[in-house]
Amino acid sequence: MLSSLRTIVQEVNSARSLSEVLGIIVKEVRDAMSAGVCSVYLFDEADQSYVLMATEGLRQESIGKVRMAMREGLVGLVAAKEEPLNLQDADQHPNFAYFEETGEAPFHSFLGVPIIHHRKVLGVLVLQQETRRRFASEEEAFVVTVCAQLSGAIAHAEATGALRQLASAGRGKSKEAVFPGIPSSSGVGIGRVVLVTSSSDLKMVPERLTDNPSAEVKLFREALKATKQDMRNLGNGLSGKLSAEEFALFEVYIRLLDDRALINEVISAIKLGQAAPSAWSTVILKHVRTFQKMDDTYLRERAADVNDLGVRVLGYLQAKDKDRVPMPRRIVLVGEDLSATALADIPVHRLVGIISLKGSSNSHMAIVGRALGIPTVMGAINLPWAELEGQELIVDGSTGDVISRATRSVRRHYVQRQREEKLFNKDLEKLRDTPCHTPDGIRFSLWVNTGLRQDTARSLKSGAEAVGLFRTEIPFLMRASFPTEDEQIEIYREQLSDFAPRPVTMRTLDIGGDKDLPYFPIEEENPFLGWRGIRISLDHPEIFLVQIRAMLRASEGINNLRIMLPMISNVPELDRALQLIERAYQELTQEEGYMIKRPLIGAMIEVPAAVYQVKEIGRRVDFMSVGTNDLTQYLLAVDRNNPRVADLYHTLHPSVLRALKQIYDQASSVNCQLSICGEMAGDPLSTVILLGLGYETFSMSASSLLRVKSILLNVSRKDAKLLSKKALKMSSSKEIITFLAQSLEQPDVVKLLKTTSPKPRADSTKLIA
Question: Catalyzes what (predicted)?
């Protein structure tokens, strides 16, 4: 059975669609077990039933028609108990339900095993035999193992929409559907989907149709020609370094791309209506599976070569395809794991919504969404993204809901929400020039976090007093290679000039974690605890010094630069970074003759180790800024990009508040300037607590600035201190949030904290992750 299991796993992993996966499972498992029947029943969220989705041994016409309620029949019992059921006389069991249309009358033995993924029952795999017998324990273990493999494929099908598409067959027109995610940037966006997919994964190519097969065939032939030329160039470039046998592989690749059968198979699929990328990936994956099933080890290993060749052609197809497809007027950007690089090819002025299947409200993409003021939903793991290209979606960044196929009344509701929020924001704009003082006269400062040139106008319009964080990694992310010193000078001088004479705090390159440069990949098992931030800069002084020189030269004559160092975890690395900055400054001023005012240098406090060394760090720098995003992540041991643990991540956790209190007290004891620049600073509730802890300088996205200003204008330092003192004694973030919401029930504050009232939709299908 081990070889059968290996075959099943290989075929499932390379299958192009869910229906193909299920077909492989029922056929291979039935053959391996010598059973009469193998069937798969999957749970349909829409009508809360288990549906026969694939079978070998029962009548094929019953597929999609046999449905059992949640606790109906033996299938429902297996799912409810979440454990295998092994019977030799299934028809004698009180839960037995007979379906004549399946032709199952001759079968007596029954083995049902639940298909479970992350504690959720997705379906049941069933084996049946005519002989009355209990299946052996070894057979049961085999089926349990198969179900564990199958669960991942089905969970992926949920995310791509294939499961919902199959399960809804025969139910008529699909209703409006609401897919929940994590609210990450408030507001409502209504637009058409532009998908961001990986060109390195053939299985992730969305199913797209074409009404112009001739153009798709032409595109396919051009991609083949370009790939063959690449192979020739690569082979010629390595000809002196490879053995004759290795060099011959390049000719094998080229011959495969010339294979008439392969080419005709793809062209036939295109003529049947598939777009070129979809047709190519379908055909290549079929050939990959053929190689994987071969007994000969050498031939089986060639599957990887075929897959690699498929990826190379796909890269050309998708690049050309992207150039030909016109962008919608209002874009909702959708991807499995979006990063800031996805914005490189998108006209940002048309962007009205961002949705990522992975990540959380503190992922880098969510932060960028807030900076741009674009409604953003992260962790929408059930969204059928692969089938959505070109469709209209409603993105509710305040609740985390994504709505597809919205009814007219629901769409009108969200359009009205947009109008209300626009009016509300217009009211907030009246506060722009209001002095930043609490009712009892405490002066507070509101700074802005930026990273894109588009942020500048919005930041100044919101009344930002300074830039508390300029994310220098974003311009790096938008390029195909490291920007030169002159290119960086241009970027930094624009930012410094736009905000002059206001101070601009530029954080040195902070890559790693969830911010990988496409041209400087970092492969690590745990990137957030690995090589990132200042660690990379110190290991690559040639990158760090170029950036510091660019910042210093850009500031000449403007004199509003502040430099901030990220991810400081010990004093020696801080000392080393300060030495390198001093070296760059001396070279420019003493050796090269630049007239540069010495900038203030600061450090971020964002790892627990730094919390306990605030005094030592504060004595060495001019200012410190608390990065609450990473500090919360490390204190709570919660990956901020993981939607499965997103509910454990909260900046109002008692441990985080106590750490912030300690940081403030220690910084004050050495008279070091202190600000807070994490996303917590842009949350109106949190800023009340921060004000009470002593913080007076807050740096946030431009979209949050006037909201925070509105609440701080209405809360005195005296009241904030009382609230923070009580909050520090509480034992959970839930308790603290409830306490704050109840304590701040002033009309103006309530309006600010609750500007939306999502309308319930009784006529829609809510798909819960």
Answer: L-histidyl-[protein] + phosphoenolpyruvate = N(pros)-phospho-L-histidyl-[protein] + pyruvate
Per-residue confidence (pLDDT) for residue 316, from 0 to 100: 83
Cis status of the peptide bond prior to 435, with omega within 30 of 0: no
Three-state secondary structure readout of 288-355: HHHHHCCCCHHHHHHHHHHHHHHHHHHHHHHHHHHHHCCCCCCEEEEECCCCHHHHHHCCHHHEEEEE
How many Å is the maximal CA-CA distance in the chain? 95
Which residues of the chain register pLDDT less than 70? 1-3, 13-17, 156-175, 198-200, 237-250, 295-301, 320-325, 341, 344, 386, 514, 518, 641, 643, 746-769
Determine which helix (DSSP H) or strand (DSSP E) holds 248, and give its type and residue range. Answer: helix 244-257
Tally of CB atoms within 10 A around 394: 27
Q: Strand runs (DSSP E) across 357-503, as ranges?
A: 376-378, 392-396, 401-404, 445-450, 467-471
Residue with tokens 């588009």: 454
Return the CATH number of 177-197+336-422, one of 2.40.290.10, 3.50.30.10, 2.130.10.10, 2.60.120.280: 3.50.30.10
* Closest to 603 measured CA to CA, from 619, 616, 615, 621: 621
* pLDDT at position 348: 83
The answer to whether 227 and 312 are in contact (CB under 8 A) is yes
CA–CA distances in Å: residue 582 to residues 277, 544, 579, 603, 718? 53, 12, 5, 15, 42
Q: What is the pLDDT of residue 243?
A: 59
pLDDT recorded at residue 756: 35
Instruction: Please identify which of the residues 117, 156, 364, 650 carries the catalytic annotation.
Output: 364
Is residue 364 annotated as part of the catalytic site, yes or no?
Answer: yes
Per-residue pLDDT, 377: 94
CATH for 2-167 (3.90.190.20, 3.30.70.580, 3.30.450.20, 3.30.450.40)? 3.30.450.40
Domain 202-324 has CATH 1.10.274.10: yes
- Domains of the chain by residue range: 2-167, 177-197+336-422, 202-324, 436-753
Active site residue 436: no
Overall size of the chain counted in residues: 769
Query: Do 388 and 367 contact (CB within 8 A), yes or no?
Result: no
Q: What residues pair up with 116 in beta bridges, in sequence order?
A: 121
pLDDT at 761: 36
Residue type, 187: G
pTM: 0.67
Cβ atoms of 86 and 35 within 8 Å: the answer is no
Q: Are 651 and 660 in contact (CB under 8 A)?
A: no
Q: Tokens at residue 514, please?
A: 């969830």
Q: What pLDDT was estimated at residue 746?
A: 59
